[in-house]
Amino acid sequence: MQKNQQPTWDFNVINMRISKNQIKFIRSLSQKKVRDAEQLFLAEGEKCVRELLQSFEPYLIASSIPLLGVSALEASPMEIEQMSQLRHPQGVIAAFRMPNPIIAESADELTLALDGIQDPGNLGTIIRTADWFGISNIVCSADTVDCWNPKVVQATMGALARVRVHYTDLYSFIQRSTQSKADDAAGKCGSCPVYGTLLDGKNMYLPNAIPCKNSGIIIMGNEGNGISPAIRNLITHPLFIPSYPADRPTSESLNVAIATAIVLAEFRR
């Protein structure tokens, strides 16, 4: 199927079966180069697909189960399994059109910044967590895993319908944000605070560790290496999540998705 070619089936037609070519095409969307070329991404499971239908245009929906109110191509459980990226397919798979890419110019609200997150499950969980805590924008470095990766989409459980994910030069984005906020006399917190989780940061539960909870940038770093040195230099308020109890050895570090949830919970408290 050629790029941007319109599907030859009618979504209003009920009981139309999926074809072998369509199965092959859906399977190819597991590859980033194909997703980028076709501007399509995959989602699986009835709940996730219904959530995404609120915000994204469907290109193809295939199902081996009845879908109330949704026109879909009929597929057998075996055909769903052939297309699925899951160990245990959930009976529904859909291809959605990607939104036009949005370049985040600066942070004008509490924004989450991700520096080199590599694990799809972590990114998906972070997006879902951001949705829970009312974060509308996540800004990612160019080397962060693709948010349209099927494993990421699945882990978000539909949160991509409400959270915008941007990919850009993270260093330049933070610089622009701090400068624009400093120039904004109406800014409630003055210049844009830049928070980051570091082992030598300030206990985030102490008074004044977080001077402004309704705006700023929260940076979370790579699973193994943490926040990169260049980005670390831009942090104005280093934060530390203390372990408990403090007088005995504990794990060396927290999973980045768990750490993100803990930090966001404190900002929203």
Task: Please describe the topology of this protein.
Elements: H1 20-28, H2 32-38, E1 40-44, H3 46-53, E2 58-63, E3 73-74, H4 77-83, E4 92-97, E5 110-115, H5 120-132, E6 137-140, H6 150-156, E7 164-167, H7 170-183, E8 194-203, E9 216-221, H8 229-232, E10 237-240, H9 256-267
Parallel strand pairs: 2-3, 5-6, 5-9, 6-7, 8-9, 8-10
Antiparallel strand pairs: 1-4, 2-4
Structure characterization notes:
- With about 270 residues, the chain is an alpha/beta fold.
- It has 9 helices and 10 strands.
- The strands form 2 sheets. A 6-stranded parallel sheet has the order 7-6-5-9-8-10, with helices on both faces. A 4-stranded mixed sheet has the order 1-4-2-3, sandwiched between helices.
- α5 (about 120-130) links the parallel β5 and β6 (about 135-140).
- α1 runs parallel beside α4.
- The radius of gyration is 21 Å and the shape is elongated.
Q: Roughly how many Å apart are the termini?
A: 50 Å
CATH fold title of the largest domain: Alpha/beta knot
Largest sheet properties? 6 strands, parallel
CATH class of the largest domain: Alpha Beta
Q: What Rg do the Cα atoms give? A: 21 Å
Query: What's the number of domains?
Result: 2
Give the oligomer, counting copies of the same chain as homo and different chains as hetero: single chain
Number of helices: 9
Beta strand %: 15-25%
Globally, the shape reads: elongated
**The CATH fourth-level homologous superfamily of the largest domain:** SPOUT methyltransferase, trefoil knot domain
